[in-house]
UniProtKB/TrEMBL annotation:
The lineage of its organism: Eukaryota, Metazoa, Chordata, Craniata, Vertebrata. It comes from Pipistrellus kuhlii (Kuhl's pipistrelle). One of its GO terms (molecular function) is cysteine-type deubiquitinase activity. GO terms for biological process: protein deubiquitination; ubiquitin-dependent protein catabolic process. Transmembrane segments: none annotated. PROSITE patterns: USP_1, USP_2, USP_3. Residues 445-947 form the USP domain. Residues 1009-1028 are annotated as: Disordered. InterPro entries: Papain-like_cys_pep_sf (IPR038765), Peptidase_C19 (IPR050164), Peptidase_C19_UCH (IPR001394), USP (IPR028889), USP38 (IPR033840), Usp38-like_N (IPR049407), USP_CS (IPR018200). This is Ubiquitin specific peptidase 38. GO terms for cellular component: cytosol; nucleus.
């Protein structure tokens, strides 16, 4: 029968005839055949299967062999023995190579035919050894896939025990050698299918024998971490990732990132190759593992690896977005890489040139998923342009391409960036290491206390959080200058973009510290603020004069701070009053206050308008508040002697005395008792208003009853009412009337005629008890309204008035007789009284019980001059006030309901607590309750932001596409400095982490939580909290 079959398959008969004869041969297998006949038939069919010249011969061989093996099983069991199988696997078959896939297919089918025979057990044992040998020979993907099919059907052939671990490791290595040279889709699909079969085999083995999993993963890492230049592991290893249980991520990543035997070069190589795996289609969880490794490396502060890998692979990941199959995973990895790479724009700028083309490609590919993907990509791009907003030339094409796509809110962008930074990664993957010292969860940067410099830190943070002022400072072109404003710009830029938890402002401190401030000694933050603003103002005036005289030169940019201050007196005679000539300080903080004095004898009036940058508000007796009214001087009636005596900082007749009545407490400046006299003239502000002196005294009438303890808490509105209330100049404080040519009783009123963009209010809390000769602090709680309405009486013209620049409304410059300075003004000018709305921006708090020592910290939030929540209309209020001015800022004003609604909205806005190096989230409720919870902690300096329908400083609209994040682009010099420092910081963190890791091996590591006990007030300087003298190494003094 075998001869017939052999002649048939090689004959030239038509194929239908051959099929009929083959059917007869197959049927003959049902009849008895002797052993020799069966052996001959098995030999022939084996030859046809393995060496058949065409598919028909191979098909005939399979059909006949299967029929004879089924009906003559003993004979087939004798034929298909260990000798045959071993010969096939080790020597091949005649001309057929032993690694031909047909060999494995033949053995696979043979095992199926003798599965019920006892001899199959011997074959299983043989195959357990042979498949291991075969895998060690690194078979090609087709052969390895056929082997996987065989082993999946006959798991008994898989090596057992220790050999199973070896087999898995060798199979991993084999996959690492897979390569596909073809670029044709058909061949690529076949290659992917072959690799998938092999990876599925490994998955089954890992499930059956869990002990093989970890050695297999170690082998994977060994392959991808190899630094051998002659070997590049296959991306096919990505097919294994989807089979690794996700619950093992934490353990495996921690093991990899903390293993001291894993060198940085190996880790970098492995990481790069894992990112290459994103190119593997159908592989799941590759992005999950890559992101986990990114976070793990950040947690142990191996920033060098992160930087190198990101810069090397960011473009490859971006390019993967072109392919729909791998797009989701590639976008997840790209997002994490970009959002975490926050110390430098370098990584983002590598892909910026390709963004527009990708956007256009996604718009035109027609896939339903592309639209949703484009929205996600747009959000990522907006986050990066927000963070690195100093490159409008690069971003404008992108903004144009995505202008019709949704833009995330600024709050969402900040949240995404804060959560993604390397320095914000949880150290859960490396619990043995100490806490990271990166930025807090707020995304804000603290300021390191350089030795009792909390007075400066609190002021700087308040100014930085004055959003519009910060943007103006950052937008200045000061390249090449060495001015104080340049140093402030540098400080603001670092506060905005540094990766450090806290920045040390040493250069700015040395440049801005008043000369009479003793280093490492506590000082008055209000005095520092006045000095700083005055220095910035005078410096800009000098530069303007120099630029007008020498337009082609810029010598003023390199003058020292002392040179700038020494020229202040000369330049104060050249006032800049027009909007175009105003300095930045005048534009942002400058207002005008008119002092009006009416002689009660002849009714003649005098007035003077002076500039201010802050108002100093004295505390007032509560019983006098009901009698306060805001009256027009022209309509004032004669007030008899003994009328209201105003205990507020305003112009007076004698140096430093605002009310000549007998006094119990004197508000004064401690500074003059620390120094032999006034500071040098070259450091004094114009008209001596920035430096507190003996003129900074307010006498309070001891006969005026004080506020009962059980009365309602006074508010800032009450203090402002008290400040602006009319005052009768009588007794020793009489006014010299030129018309009467004698001293006369007079009525003095003060009116704000031009409001500032930012209103600075200082609460005068420090007093000198003349009776007991001790300095005391007024610890009264003051209610802080979120919405403050400032009464402003704008006049039609100020051209005829004498104007001068002062730094506050303390008016310590009025140290000579007021009558000598105020001239008759003639007819009263028309005025338009309005209430200008302000929103609370920041609060500087003093913690302590005396002026001898203490601590400053500040609360602040980001608001601009055009908050969308403020939609109040004051037209009706203005009309009402025009006819009746009584009860100014009363709580029952017509806009009280609307104001309450606004306060409810503003209460929910994000507030921050800046306490030197620490920055934490807080709420306005905490600001309101600080004094009630911690009696020694009281509000001292307040910043309010004027609200208007349009921003007063135009030309820097963030919607123009240039100020992507609302802040202006940074100068290249600043950006380079920040990038350099951020890299240095990451290197420092990495070195520290490595040093700690060496110590952590033998001892558990614990760290003190970042913060104080909840029972301590926010102003704590040390164990004694905010109390006087607590937490300072030296006996320090506050200067007020």
């Amino acid at each position: 029968m075998d001869k017939i079959l052999e002649g048939l398959v090689s004959s030239s008969y038509p194929l239908p005839v051959k099929r009929v004869i083959v059917r007869k041969v197959v049927e003959s297998a049902e009849h008895w055949q002797d052993e020799a006949q069966c052996q001959a038939m098995f030999d022939l069919t084996t030859r046809l299967i393995l060496e058949g010249q065409d598919p028909f011969q191979r098909q005939v061989g399979h059909q006949v062999l299967e029929a004879y093996a089924r009906y003559h099983r003993p004979e087939f069991e004798s034929f298909f023995n260990k000798t045959l199988v071993l010969g096939l696997l080790q020597q091949g078959y005649h001309s057929l190579d032993r690694k031909d896939v047909a060999i494995l297919d033949y053995i696979h089918n043979g095992l199926k035919l003798i599965m019920s025979c006892p001899s199959v057990l011997d074959l299983f044992g043989l195959l357990q050894v042979e498949v291991l040998r075969l895998v060690c020979e690194r078979p090609e993907p087709p052969l390895c896939a056929r082997l996987s099919d065989l082993l999946s059907d006959f798991v008994q052939c898989i090596p057992k025990g220790k050999l199973s671990i070896t087999f898995c490791q060798q199979l991993v290595r084999t996959i690492g050698h897979f390569q596909c040279q073809s670029t044709q889709e058909k061949e690529l699909r076949e290659y992917v299918a072959q690799v998938t079969k092999v990876s599925n085999l490994l998955q089954n083995i890992w499930k059956a024998e869990p002990s093989t999993l970890l050695p297999s993963l170690q082998e994977i890492f060994a392959s991808i971490s190899s630094t051998d230049a002659s070997f590049e592991p296959s991306v096919a290893l990505a097919s294994l990732v989807q089979h690794i249980p996700l619950q093992m991520i934490t353990v495996l990543i921690k093991s990899l990132t903390t293993d001291p035997n894993v060198k940085d070069a190996s880790m970098t190589q492995a990481f790069c190759r894992m990112i290459d795996w994103l190119s593997w289609p159908l592989a799941q969880h590759v992005d999950t593992w890559v992101i986990a490794l990114l976070k793990g490396l950040a947690a142990v502060q191996k920033f060098t690896i992160l930087i190198d890998v990101t810069l090397l692979k960011i473009k490859l990941v971006f390019n993967r977005l072109q392919f729909p199959l791998v797009r989701p995973g590639a976008l997840a990895v790209l997002s994490h890489m970009l959002l975490s790479f926050q110390h430098s724009p370098e990584a983002f700028h590598l892909i910026v040139p390709h963004v527009v083309n990708l956007v256009h490609s996604l718009r035109s590919d027609g896939l339903p998923s592309s639209t949703a993907f484009l929205v996600q990509l747009t959000e990522l791009i907006h986050c990066m342009m927000y963070h690195y907003s100093g490159f409008p030339d690069l971003y404008e094409p992108i903004l144009e391409a995505i202008k019709d796509l949704p833009k995330p809110s600024e709050e969402k962008i900040k949240l995404i960036l804060n959560q993604s930074a390397w320095t914000s990664q949880s150290d859960a993957l490396a619990s043995c290491l100490s806490r990271l010292s990166g930025k807090s969860e707020t995304g804000k940067t603290g300021l390191i206390n350089l030795g009792n410099t909390c007075y400066m830190n609190s002021v700087i943070q308040a100014l930085f959080m004055a959003t519009d002022f910060r943007r103006q400072v950052l937008s200045l072109n000061l390249n090449g200058c060495n001015s104080l404003m340049k140093k402030l710009q540098h400080l603001f830029a670092f506060l905005a973009h540094t990766q450090r938890e806290a920045y040390a402002p040493r250069i700015f401190f040395e440049a801005s510290r008043p000369p009479w401030f003793t280093p490492r000694s506590q000082q008055d933050c209000s005095e520092y603020l006045r000095f700083l603003l005055d220095r910035l103002h005078e410096e800009e005036k000098i530069l303007k004069v120099q630029s007008s005289h020498k337009p082609s030169e810029s010598l003023g940019c390199i003058e020292t701070s002392q040179e700038v201050a020494s020229k202040a007196a000369v330049l104060t005679e050249t006032p800049y009053t027009s909007d175009g000539e105003k300095t930045l300080i005048e534009k942002m903080f400058g207002g005008k206050l008119r002092t009006h004095i009416c002689c009660l004898n002849c009714r003649s009036t005098s007035q003077k308008v002076e500039a201010f940058t802050d108002l100093s508000l004295a505390f007032c007796p509560s019983s006098s508040m009901d009698s306060l009214s805001f009256q027009d001087p022209a309509s004032s009636l004669s007030i008899p002697d003994g009328g209201l005596l105003q205990a507020c900082p305003g112009p007076s007749e004698e140096p430093g005395i605002y009310n000549p009545a007998a006094a119990t407490f004197v508000y004064d400046s401690v500074m003059n008792e620390r120094m032999a006299g006034h500071p040098p003239d070259e450091f004094c502000c114009t008209e001596n208003t920035s430096v507190p002196s003996e003129s900074n005294k307010i006498f309070i009438n001891k006969d005026v009853p004080q506020k009962p303890g059980g009365e309602a808490t006074p508010s800032v509105t009450d203090l402002l009412n008290y400040f602006l209330a009319p005052e009768i100049l009588t007794g020793d404080n009489q006014y010299y009337c030129e018309n009467c040519a004698s001293l006369q009783n007079a009525e003095k009123t003060m009116q704000i005629t031009e409001e500032p963009e930012y209103l600075i209010l200082t609460l005068l809390r420090f007093s000198y008890d003349q009776k007991y000769h001790v300095r005391r602090k007024i610890l009264d709680n003051v209610s802080l309204p979120l919405v403050l309405e400032l009464p402003v009486k704008r006049t039609t013209s100020f051209s005829s008035l004498s104007e001068s620049w002062s730094i506050d409304v303390d008016f310590t410059d009025i140290s000579e007789n007021l009558a000598k300075k105020l001239k008759p003004s003639g007819t009263e000018e028309a005025c338009c009284p309005i209430l200008v709305p302000y929103l609370l921006s920041s609060v500087v708090v003093h913690s302590g019980i005396s002026s001898e020592s203490g601590h400053y910290y500040s609360y602040a939030r980001n608001i601009t001059g055009t908050e969308s929540s403020y939609q109040m209309c004051h037209q009706s209020d203005t009309l009402a006030l025009a006819s009746s001015q009584s009860h100014l800022l009363a709580r029952d004003s017509p806009s009280a309901v609307m104001e309450q609604d606004l306060e409810n909205k503003e209460m929910s806005k994000e507030w921050f607590l800046f306490n030197d190096s620490r920055v934490t989230f807080t709420s306005f409720q905490s600001v309101q309750k600080i004094t009630s919870r911690f009696p020694k902690d009281t509000a001292y300096v307040l910043l309010y932001r004027k609200q208007s329908s349009t921003n007063g400083l135009s030309g820097n609209n963030s919607t123009s596409g240039l100020w992507v994040n609302g802040d202006p682009p940074l100068q290249k010099e600043l950006m380079d400095a920040i990038t350099k420092d951020n890299k240095l910081y990451l290197q420092e963190q990495e070195l520290n982490a490595r040093a700690r890791a060496l110590q952590a091996a033998s001892a558990s590591c614990s760290f003190r939580p970042n913060g104080f006990d909840d029972n301590d007030p926010p102003g704590s300087c040390g164990p004694t909290g905010g109390g006087g003298g607590g937490g300072f190494n030296t006996v320090s003094r506050l200067v007020f």
